[in-house]
Design a protein that fits this description.
Elements: E1 12-16, E2 19-22, H1 23-43, H2 58-84, H3 86-91, H4 106-123, H5 128-153, H6 172-178, H7 191-212, H8 222-239, H9 259-282
Antiparallel strand pairs: 1-2
Helix pairs in contact: 1-2, 1-5, 2-4, 4-5, 5-7, 5-8, 7-8, 8-9
């Protein structure tokens, strides 16, 4: 018996004829739209920016939402295939478009979004680091929505545990879809909720504090560095509680090195570099 009951939520939010709309897809839409709204508030507050002049207009942000959506979806899916599921997709190519099979890779989505930001900034003469900062400030909203969708789907569950809040990740909908419970009849860490809390809520609040209390956007690139480093450290920490993808398992030793750790470790160094670079650029020249 699970220490806490896993909710009886159908992964399909609703159906329109033959079309089934999954919570996973709705989570991405919600994350993008809420992030867009928050980004508009940040861009519209000139007091937050160097010289009290916003580097991007709300109209430009409205155009950018299409770019970032494509970067997230294409980069996230391609990244998942390359990092986690390449053999299965080669064997069965249609699996590539089935985002509910494995889902998306954050690291791939970050790469896709970065490419979209660079191209958009250059085409619209927007300071690239300031655009990075805006996106970094709102990404935790999308991460929170995505991890909650992972939880509803009963996927990306945690390792075996005996903590009082452990769960058996199975309900009637998961059994009906798979014919069994993929996670087995075992009590596991709800690691999706750990990630939603750290990557989503905590990181969002830290970045908001830096932006509104310490005016960090006046130092272009610093918010980006904090986000990249903060996400990576959060992900590495949660990986100690999260079950690795079955097709990969542990990459080295027993029960500690995972693909998520490998992909996140360089991000820590990249984030530190971005923060140091931002401080150096902002320092008065003598």
């Amino acid at each position: 018996m699970a220490a806490m009951p896993f909710p009886e939520i159908d992964p399909i939010a609703f159906s329109l004829g033959p079309l089934s709309v999954h919570w996973y897809g709705l989570a991405y839409v919600a994350g993008i739209m809420l992030g867009w709204y928050y980004a508009r508030q940040i861009a519209g507050n000139s007091k937050l920016w160097p010289g009290e002049v916003s580097p991007i207009t709300k109209l430009q942000l409205d155009d950018f939402i299409i770019w970032v959506a494509l970067g997230i979806v294409l980069g996230g899916r391609i990244g998942y295939i390359l990092f986690y599921d390449l053999a299965a997709v080669i064997e069965r190519p249609v699996r590539a478009i089935q985002i509910w099979n494995g889902g998306m890779s954050f690291h791939g989505g970050l790469t896709g979004t970065t490419i979209a930001m660079i191209i958009f900034a250059r085409r619209n003469s927007i300071p690239i680091w300031s655009l990075f900062d805006i996106v970094a400030a709102v990404v935790p909203i999308g991460l929170f929505c995505g991890r909650i969708a992972n939880f509803i789907n009963g996927e990306l569950w945690g390792r075996l545990t005996d903590v009082p809040w452990g769960m058996v990740f199975c309900n009637q909908y998961i059994e009906k879809t798979n014919g069994y419970c993929p996670g087995g009849d075992f009590v596991r860490h709800p690691s999706q909720l750990y990630e939603a809390g750290l990557e989503g809520i905590v990181l969002l609040l830290v970045l908001a504090l830096l932006i509104y209390r310490f005016r960090a956007l006046k130092t272009p690139g610093f918010v980006t560095g904090v986000f990249v480093c903060g996400y990576a450290l959060s992900r590495i920490f949660v990986e100690f509680f999260r079950e690795p993808d079955a097709q990969l398992g542990y990459l080295l030793g027993t029960n500690w090195l995972t693909m998520g750790m490998v992909l996140s470790t360089p991000m820590v160094l990249l984030g530190i570099w971005a923060m140091l670079r931002a401080r150096r650029q902002a320092a008065p020249q003598h």
